[in-house]
Automatic annotation (TrEMBL):
Organism the protein comes from: Nocardiopsis metallicus
A Pfam family hit: HTH_1
The family this protein is said to belong to: Belongs to the LysR transcriptional regulatory family.
Listed name of the protein: DNA-binding transcriptional LysR family regulator
GO terms assigned for molecular function: DNA binding; DNA-binding transcription factor activity
PROSITE patterns on file: HTH_LYSR (PS50931)
Residue stretches making up the HTH lysR-type domain: 1-58
Amino acid sequence: MLLSQLKYLTALAEERHFARAAQACHVSQPALSAAIRKLEAEFRVPIVRRSNRFIGFTHEGERIVAWAQRVLAEHDTLVDNVRSLREGLSGRLRIGAIPTTLSSIALITSAFCERHPMVTLSIASMTSNEIQRGLADYQIDVGLTYVDNEPLEHVRKHPVYRERYALLTAEHGLLADHETITWAEAAEVPLCLLSSDMQNRRIIDQAFRRAGVEAVPKVETNSVSALCSYVKENRWSAVMPHAWLALHSVPEGMRAIPLVEPEVSKQIGLVVADREPEPILARALLDTLSDTDPQARIDRYHPTGLAPEVTL
């Protein structure tokens, strides 16, 4: 059994297509198919359910894929550990982050990058469910997501900062005289919100329900930037996390109004898979958190929350 054969198998599991898997591995499709057939011969079980195209793995194949992912991850961890003893940390740290936290990634990782200049970062925008799967399948090393809302399974949680919420709206619109706004009042405003597959949206919907109302957005998107573009048109408002507003500043022509009744706050944190060995790059990132203190940096912009007088 060769590591290359396991890499071909995990590539097929990720791509779900023989030709794309071969392309990802920089080999021909016949070479990839032959390597997987050799694995089947060695294990004496069929791994792939074959047809004119890839249709999935057998029950035995699913178990072998999971085993191959673990072996490759442990091999990479071993290589990183040995290399770090000789020349310091290097390699690629793969991070999956929910869209509302992407603005804080640089803040969270800056100390890590300074301490380990030979490490590169790969950052992907993912839903919380995708982060859960990515950690389980060894596709990412670390996730940045909510740690106190929907259950996360088989992970270690490391809180980073608390997320609060404000209504981003036109500076001189109908809400110009509001210093705060209740969730019930916000439900009456034309809204654009993140799509329902985002945990942020589910948190927002829960807040509206706690206020005894249901919000029906006019626009749904999976992009925070798109939300801002609609608010800029002066016809819609958007519920935004205060960390995004604090780190980006309130866009010109808009103002952020704190949302109250109920008060809503959720914990954002780093998550890693609950298994050994722990990826050395993930551990190194966690070790730099005490040098960063993102919560203090975020709250420095608005020490008592999103002050209503802060407008542009």
